[in-house]
C-alpha cells in the first residue's frame, strides 16, 4: 500500500501557513491551541497531508493576521500544479530559517526608508562581490590544476 502524495495546492497552502507562523515567531503548539486543534493536525496541514477546509483557513488567516488570499499566489493560481518557482521556493525557505527570520525582523524594525534602501543596496553589492569572488576563485583553481 503506497502512501498518498500530498496535493500540490494543499502543500503550497500549508507552506504559506508555516511561513507566516514562523515569521510571527509562533510555535506549532501555540498556533494549534489558538485554532482549537492538536499540533499534530497543524503539522499535517503545514505538510499538505491534510486539506484545510474553508472555515478553518479563514480562522488561520484571522489568527495569523493576513487575508485568506495570502495563502494563494495569485500569479501561480492559474497554473495546474501551483508549484513555487525556484526563486520563490528559495526565498520562502530562507525566510523560514533562523537567519532569515532574524534578518527579516531586523529589517522590519528599521523605520527610515532611506536606511532600508541603503541596506538593500549594500546587500546587493555584497552578493555581487561574492559572485565575483567565487568566479575568481574558481578561475584560480582551474589555473592551478592546469599547472
Automatic annotation (TrEMBL):
Protein name per UniProt: Transcriptional regulator
Database matches in PANTHER family: HTH-TYPE TRANSCRIPTIONAL REGULATOR, HTH-TYPE TRANSCRIPTIONAL REGULATOR SUTR
PROSITE patterns: HTH_CROC1
Keyword Protein transport found: no
SMART domains xrefs: HTH_XRE
Domain named HTH cro/C1-type: residues: 17-71
Cellular component GO terms, alphabetical: cytosol
First and last residue of the signal peptide: none
Keyword Transport: no
A Pfam short name: HTH_3
GO molecular function, one term: DNA-binding transcription factor activity
Entry-linked CDD domains: HTH_XRE (cd00093)
Coiled-coil ranges per UniProt: none
Keyword set, alphabetical order: DNA-binding, Plasmid, Transcription, Transcription regulation
